[in-house]
Write a structure and sequence with these properties.
By secondary structure, the chain is α+β, with helices and mostly antiparallel strands. It has helices at about 25-35, 45-55, 75-80, 90-105; strands spanning about 10-15, 20-25, 35-40, 65-70.
């Protein structure tokens, strides 16, 4: 599998004290600014809240395309759950499904396709 990531350096900054890369721009500003968006992650549990912030500020705002990729339930169970030793994999899967449902409700009429 080949993965690629496009980052605009102007939207990121380095924290000299901790050597961490941090966003210069708030996530809701990035989401508002771009018409086509892709997300790859595990849970996306705060993503619907971020989209809601944009919609609250601009009720008529829409996006051309929004792609949100989640891992499969089996991937969570047999691989990714190792990164969350304090949580049973069933909880992680349930959180993923809640996030999917919430995002569908928030973005249902806001994305052109």
């Amino acid at each position: 599998t080949k993965w690629s990531l496009k980052i605009k350096p102007a939207e990121l900054k380095s924290d000299n004290e901790s050597n961490q890369i941090k966003p210069k721009v708030l996530p809701q500003d990035l989401i508002r600014r771009h018409r086509r968006i892709s997300f790859i992650g595990i849970m996306h549990d705060n993503l619907s809240k971020t989209f809601l912030k944009v919609i609250e500020k601009e009720p008529k705002h829409t996006w051309d395309k929004v792609y949100i990729f989640f891992p499969s339930d089996n991937c969570i169970k047999y691989s990714l759950a190792r990164n969350y030793p304090d949580q049973p994999y069933e909880n992680l899967i349930e959180q993923k499904h809640k996030s999917q449902k919430s995002l569908q409700e928030v973005l249902g009429r806001k994305v052109h396709d």
